[in-house]
Amino acid sequence: MTVRVQAAAAQLLYALPRPLRRALAGRPVRRDGQELALDAHLLLRLQQLSGDGLTNGSVAESRAALDASRHLVSGPAIQPVDTREVPIPAEHGELPATLYTPRDPGPGLLVFYHGGGWVVGSRASHDNTARFLAKHAQVRVLSVEYRLAPEHPFPAAQEDALTAFDFAHAKAGDLGADPDRIAVGGDSAGGNLAAVTALVTTRRGGPAPAFQLLLYPAVDATVRRRSRDLFADGFFLTDEEMTWFVDHYAPEGVDRSDPTLSPLLADDLTGLPPAYLATAGFDPLRDEGEAYATKLRQAGVPVSLSRQSDLIHGYANFLGVGRRFTEATAEAAGALRMGVA
Which among 45, 80, 149, 305 is placed 20 to 30 Å from 260, CA to CA? Predict the structure, then answer.
């Protein structure tokens, strides 16, 4: 079955009356006082039937599978959003990046880092997420193609994330943005890179972001929290996949307590930019993200913590199916819009 046919089948499935969708998904899933959204439950059923996961064999096979599967759930390209390529100079050559510009943008700009466990994912896999944020937050979005592990393990991705922010700040005028209204953001591993960039730039005393958009971020590679066991399997991101990702990014010999890998372990979070931090209720990363929000608040950082209690990891990439994923991502876009207004 071609990807186009599979995507059409998924659209038809989500268009069915709710009782039929519920019958196909199965009985409601309740765990930890939460009930899984029907849209998420149906997506997990489709994933179960396809047999696909975030990691499928080798690194190359996993990357190819993610690139193919995005067409099933991300939906058609969101318009009107203009794009242009923006190469970012770096010590190792150039970082490819795409600038997304909505109609009538405000002065803000988001430097966006895609998710994918630092191993898979790309600007292409997160194209519609970037488009959605640009359009609904009315900001420009600079989506960065940072280096991936295992070819480029820690700290390569973190260094590229910092390079991209510094470039955006230095070239804000060329990008059509106000240098004082630049946010950093990302989902999952990209949320990690955004949080680390905010931490490093604040601590060095130079230009720092005005806002952090952290969607279900990975912030501590050293501690196994309760949510990782509660949602270890069957909810899109699995415990086994989390281990696979971090072992590629931070292999043996890397100090996983380093705050530029695990920002939750930083001694001092004072002075960091305001943050919108979203977690998903059925996500093994939920508890570490919420612990980070708590620690930011204790350091006096303004934080809006939003647990999407009925959703799963990765929801900002599922904009082409159902409504619930779009609702949650729209909340993030609203926070971004206010954060760089």
Answer: 305
